[in-house]
């Protein structure tokens, strides 16, 4: 795999800006859930992992964490259709819990819409969405985003959890991909 700097067109959100905004989100969530004794953060694997880890350290309300993974059918063409399949389920019950879904990016909205539908059926006490990035120009279905880190333009981005063919999730910033320079693995 190429080093990231060969693929990086520009840094869209630098590390300091990310961390500052995540601290704000954590403070806001801490205020809103101050009276909750049942907060659970649900992280959507794998892209939201760095975000969850940084966000939870700014949440002062006692809470648990859990993970789920989904995949869309017919990927590769860069579009999800709403056919979202659960590939890894939560290990705990969300019944009567205040569930906060933690997601890296909302693009068409199909992924989060499917997850919301799925989790709603399990009767949580409440269910909200916290998304680091919102690419609202590409939205195809209406989804509620209660906590939003950044609105971003319609560009393909990577880093801080977001991958290019599973690589570069470790970068501490969000970068724009230079699609002319990127060479996908065989
Ligand atoms: P949606 O179902 O179209 O909202 O897709 C959301 C998912 O697509 C995210 O969880 C990401 O995995 C992926 N995705 C969307 N846009 C980007 C991007 O710019 N870079 C990396 N992954 C992205
Ligand atoms: Mg994702």
Main sheet, how many strands, which sense, barrel? 6 strands, mixed
Number of strands: 9
Terminal Cα span: 10 Å
Radius of gyration: 16 Å
What average pLDDT do the residues reach? 94
Main CATH class: Alpha Beta
Shape: globular
Structural class determined from secondary elements: alpha/beta
- The string of secondary-structure elements, in order, is EHEHEEEHEEEE
Q: Beta-strand level of the residues, as a percent range?
A: 25-35%
Q: Tell me the number of structural domains.
A: 1
**How many H/I helical runs?**
3
**Fraction of residues in helix:** 10-25%
What fold name goes in the CATH topology slot?
Rossmann fold
Give a structural overview.
The protein is an alpha/beta fold. The chain has a single domain (about 15-150), classed as Rossmann fold (3-Layer(aba) Sandwich). Helix content is about 20%, strand content about 30%. The protein contains three helices and nine strands. It has helices at about 15-30, 50-55, 110-120, and strands at about 10-15, 40-45, 65-70, 85-90, 100-105, 125-135, 145-150, 155-160, 175. The strands form two sheets. Strands 4-3-2-5-6-7 form a six-stranded mixed β-sheet. Helix 1 packs across helix 2.
Which helices and strands occur, and which strands form pairs?
Elements (H helix, E strand, L loop, with lengths): L7 E6 L1 H18 L6 E7 L3 H8 L6 E10 L11 E5 L9 E9 L3 H11 L5 E9 L12 E5 L5 E2 L15 E4 L9
Parallel strand pairs: 2-3, 2-5, 5-6, 6-7
Antiparallel strand pairs: 1-9, 3-4, 8-9
The protein binds inosinic acid and magnesium ion.
């Amino acid at each position: 795999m190429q080093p990231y700097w060969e693929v990086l067109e520009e840094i869209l959100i630098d590390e300091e800006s990310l961390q500052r905004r995540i601290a704000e989100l954590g403070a806001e969530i801490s205020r809103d859930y101050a009276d909750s004794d049942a907060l659970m953060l649900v992280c959507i694997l794998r892209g939201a992992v760095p975000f969850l880890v940084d966000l939870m350290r700014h949440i002062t309300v006692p809470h648990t964490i859990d993970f789920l993974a989904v995949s869309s059918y017919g990927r590769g063409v860069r579009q999800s259709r709403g056919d979202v399949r659960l590939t890894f389920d939560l290990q705990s019950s969300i019944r009567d819990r205040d569930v906060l879904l933690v997601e890296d990016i909302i693009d068409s909205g199909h992924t989060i819409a499917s997850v919301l539908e799925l989790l709603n059926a399990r009767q949580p006490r409440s269910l909200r969405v916290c998304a680091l990035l919102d690419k609202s120009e590409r939205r195809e279905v209406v989804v509620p985003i209660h906590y939003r880190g950044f609105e971003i333009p319609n560009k393909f981005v990577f880093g801080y959890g977001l991958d290019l063919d599973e690589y570069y999730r470790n970068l501490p910033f969000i970068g724009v991909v230079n699609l002319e320079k990127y060479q996908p693995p065989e």
